[in-house]
Amino acid sequence: MAEHVYKIIELVGSSRTTIEDAVQNALTKAGETIRNIRWFQVTETRGYVDEGCVAYWQVTIKLGFTLDE
Questions:
Q1: 3, 12, 20, 23: most buried, per Cβ within 10 A?
Q2: Cα dihedral sign for 52, 12, 16, 42?
Q3: Domain ranges of the chain
Q4: What dihedral angle (degrees, nearest 10) is formed by the CA atoms of 39, 42, 21, 29?
Q5: What residue ranges in 1-69 does DSSP mark as E strands?
Q6: CA-CA distances (angstroms) from residue 1 to 4, 5, 40, 65, 66?
Q7: Which H helix or E strand runs over 21?
């Protein structure tokens, strides 16, 4: 097994439906420009309230990816 060096970035994803969709939206967008994504860690979850109801979810994640050799 090769030794890896990882870079970590922080992203915020949002979704009108679920926390999981908010995470997936952040991962999908990051995947358009970042290669070698390996893991994520949820660091914060919050929601926006409109007229007494949850309007959307926001999830902050740390995203780890390996650097090119």
A1: 23
A2: negative
A3: 6-66
A4: -50
A5: 6-15, 37-50, 53-66
A6: 9, 13, 21, 16, 14
A7: helix 19-31
Q: Which of 12, 2, 15, 5 is nearest to 63 (CA)?
A: 12
What predicted TM-score, i.e. pTM, was given to this entire model? 0.88
Contact between 10 and 61 (Cβ < 8 Å) = yes
In the structure, what pLDDT confidence band is assigned to residue 49 with cuts at 50, 70 and 90?
Answer: very high
Torsion sign (Cα): 29, 39, 5, 3: negative
CATH of domain 6-66: 3.30.1660.10
More confident residue, 1 or 50: 50
Report whether pLDDT(44) > 90: yes
